[in-house]
Amino acid sequence: MVNGTVQQWIYSLVTFSIIFGTEALFVNITYVLSGVAKGAVCLDGSPPAYHHDKGFGTGVNSWLIQMEGGGWCNNVTTCLSRKNTRLGSSKQMVENLAFSGILSNKPQFNPDFYNWNRVKVGYCDGSSFTGDVQEVNPITKLHFRGARVFLAVMEELLAKGMKNAENAILSGCSAGGLTSILHCDSFKALLPMGAKVKCFSDAGYFIDVKDISGAPHIEEYFRDVVSLHGSAKNLPPVCTSRLKPDLCFFPQNVAQHVRTPLFLVNAAYDSWQIKNILAPDVADPYGVWLNCKLDILKCSSRQLQIMHGYRLLFLRALNALGPSSSRGYFINSCYAHCQTEVQETWYRADSPKLANKTIAKALGDWFYDKNPFQKIDCPYPCDKTCHNRVFDPNVHTFNIDI
Predict the structure, then answer these.
(1) Which of 60, 101, 241, 360 is deepest in the core (most CB within 10 A)?
(2) Which tens digit of pLDDT belongs to each residue from 88-129?
(3) Of residues 298, 288, 301, 368, the one with CA closest to residue 328
(4) Which domains does the chain have, with CATH numbers?
């Protein structure tokens, strides 16, 4: 695990690279100081925080809430390793955050949402905003209060004008994408009765499957997350009333019960899921999958066959949700993870497409009820519009907690 300073530097460098070539928009941080008295705090006890760029023109009463991603922590050790980073403390979050992709304020980069109120909520609890443990260990001083953080931020945004919202989207990437599914209906309940409210998950559809060694690694991991953070009481009751709480951390067991319209964007060969669910380090002690996980072009024919099998399991978990006219999905066959906050994969001439539509166009048409969108890509490598991720072999990125 890299230390907090190096991690922050890497994060800033990546953020800069995302906006390179576009007109940069940097947004100041806001701390939710009122949340502290309610116990709504990050892992280290610091106040929650978010970055908000105000809406203008026709978008002044429209709100896009983007929940930050960043994995989870499943035990005291992994939570302590996050505690002094931006994923555990608002003290370590960047003061000025670059907004791009779905958060851009330029119509040429974000045609449907550029003039909305766009908010990026900092992720500093490690439980996809589901935890709530009253007790604080006097030695570790870890606070597990994700659910309180979510509510405190939403209450502040409501007071700042979201209570007058005409349109609203709860969205997020990765662990933030999972947040948008788990909190979708509760988010809608906070908004005015007449508002058009929908939810959008980018790379948040994590599936419950065994790894290459045959072990239920991700299921055990989520069980530890739910137990440590006291998440059970904040997971959808319609799921926890029939399944073990940890199974309700998986979207495949929750999404079919979400009443609010939901759009899912996911790569069927999601690079994070391949690295951490299908072939985690613990299941690959000799590093046979290392090069494949870094670059899909370096996968052997056998590894690709296994990944094709993973795609079929992913599609089975998606299809198990059953038909829904209000649900949308954009499932491409790219080796990628999170495609909406990066301009090149959100909305650009060479962005990934399905049915000749970018993710931005598909989502915008779906939100405004112009056209439904439920498209699944053909298997890799048939899609020539993909921007497949290639990872730096010198940066070890396979720890599930980062």
Answers:
(1) 101
(2) 999 999 999 999 999 999 999 999 999 999 999 999 999 999
(3) 368
(4) 25-376 (3.40.50.1820)
